[in-house]
Fold this protein.
Amino acid sequence: MKFWGKKESVDVTKAGRTTVQKNVVSERVYFDWAAATPLLPAAYAAMKPCFKENFGNPSAIHEEGKRAREVVERARSEVARALQVRPEFVTFTAGGTEGNNLTILGTISQLQAKGRSYEKMEVITTKLEHPSVLETMCKLEQLGVRVKYVEVNEEGLISLQNLKKLVTAETVLLSVAYANSEIGTVQPLHSLKKILCEAEKRFKDKVYLHVDAAQAPLWLNCQLDSTQADLLVLDAAKCCGPKGVGVLVRSRRSEILSSSFGGGQESGLRPGTENVAGIAGAAVAIVAAQADWRARAEKIREVRDKGISLLLKTIPQAVLNGTKDDKRLANNINISLPSFDTEYAAVWLDAKGFAVSTKSACSSAGGGESLVVKTATSDDARASSTLRLTLGPESTIEEIKNLSIHLKEWIVLMKSV
Amino acid sequence: MKFWGKKESVDVTKAGRTTVQKNVVSERVYFDWAAATPLLPAAYAAMKPCFKENFGNPSAIHEEGKRAREVVERARSEVARALQVRPEFVTFTAGGTEGNNLTILGTISQLQAKGRSYEKMEVITTKLEHPSVLETMCKLEQLGVRVKYVEVNEEGLISLQNLKKLVTAETVLLSVAYANSEIGTVQPLHSLKKILCEAEKRFKDKVYLHVDAAQAPLWLNCQLDSTQADLLVLDAAKCCGPKGVGVLVRSRRSEILSSSFGGGQESGLRPGTENVAGIAGAAVAIVAAQADWRARAEKIREVRDKGISLLLKTIPQAVLNGTKDDKRLANNINISLPSFDTEYAAVWLDAKGFAVSTKSACSSAGGGESLVVKTATSDDARASSTLRLTLGPESTIEEIKNLSIHLKEWIVLMKSV
């Protein structure tokens, strides 16, 4: 997986400016890979012809249409091969949020269309989920569906005991993130699936597993059978593909209804002219991400662990949020600095050349504390003082070391105020 | 408005091929601008930095995030200025289909959330609409909303008399296309609005006007007050912008609820990380399309009218579908060849180097007759033999002349079979 040359990909101080003075440009360190990733040059190369000569509508009958259709179907085949499913089970969406909406609403609508009333359906999820899942759950509740939140431990891991208790004959769906976008906790999907399988046997009815894998492709195996998911949602923009494109992968037994209406594109699940260029780029990115996720994860896990040790040592106030080892996403560092307002730390670090965040970008509009850390730890001080570093495949311990020096400086400054 | 050099934009025979032999490449004539348009080089130029150095998430707190946010908000301001609204009334979507869905479902959900039951709501539309409107109407009917279809004449123009009769105290929305995507009929929006205003006075309640303006920006004035719309839907891909991006423009008095759920992006109306590059390109395309729509339309209307005369003269079997003069979209030619299967004509012409269609690409998946022509003319023979030529700003009468020769050839061939 080759990225843009460092200067080009990481230095954003030039963007949008008409003239750049030489030697004034400073090197930036980008530690917010969970929020956005640079586009892979190979993905861009696949998109480019679709912006120029290959501009047709894939539904059109003529040469221009057929060429566009070829691009879309080739992309579908490539994604299908990478995730080990048949192409007809791959649906291109406009991103992870749309994918999660389509999956959750679509599963429930399909069951309702088959005659099961909303009041006879239960969905299980956690309070750690991304807004695109949590907000959709609120919609389900409005419809009359019962939503249950399974307990998690301090590290954000789902309590299997509690899940077993929660599953009833009315449970139709379990919705969880493969890896949490804030604290990086990787859920034990196989153990979850086992509980659902037992429930299916006991109640003689299907319980679907929806896995929001937005954070996964660069660092975890996303082959459908390896995740055990019935419905797997990816977002190209989180794995070096373009923004505005996602993928929903379905198992053979899953059934969903579309929540939008129009032409028959994407087997009727996602109507509207296909985003041909975006789809071409997404496929390249997903294939590249999955091609060497293991080596990439092993390499960066080392940097992460050294970085965590370093931060905890340099900054005695720091507390680690989330899990360790394999149960933590390879590129995720999330610490709390209780009694500090870390939004200011993020701003301070930004001025020093480091892009970090406090929580997920989609939750950030509201400001305030991290619902994820609050749920896991029940500790307000920790929840309102999170700092998230999500590393890229080429991040180094030296970069974290430099960051820690600036962070230490900020803490000293804050204490003296 | 500058397009790609002809060779580059129109010749798609090179696309996806690794080697091209010199002098073998033939010039293509692209007459399917209603289905897809080439991307404007200036739009591409605006997108490019967002694929490279400016890759941040617009909701992120740091420099990379802020730069991405600037791109999105600058694009919003530019679109707002072009359409003469305030930026807060511009929402970026993932395309025209999503825009129409959001508008129709969003208006109804908002009213329902305010306490009006579905059964107490009526929506009026025509049977000529794009699938993204017609299929959404089916969804409304499932919910219990009454959907009424206003009569149109043989040319596809809405019957004002009939509309007056249909509007009742329960009518909440009229949903029409500015210009029909198949036969190019431009609806008299001012007259429609007048009827709605009268109804509003009579029944002391709002009746919103939703205008699907997907086909309009290159050829018609899309300033919100000029369209009289409460909700105006555009699709960047139909006016030389990128695929997968649309715009919903709202009047001050309109109120809609989102139909998808997640982060607070786009004022909560369209959650999910913004497609920054796409939005940047869409803004450039929409601004350029609107900057000189009048001159562009006047020029191509001449070519269209000469083309129509020529086709009707060369091919005596041909019948024109739709209207004339200003009431017909400047770039639209739609004829029927009763008793011929024009899908074969489209394939024949394609082989001869002409990209044409039989109807809208979104309706094409199903094959079969044109519902638009069927509704307008009640003539099965005409409805099942349509041929649509949608011209570009640089199309010429010579190109139509060449096409007519090949079409004539095909007809002779068919008759001899």
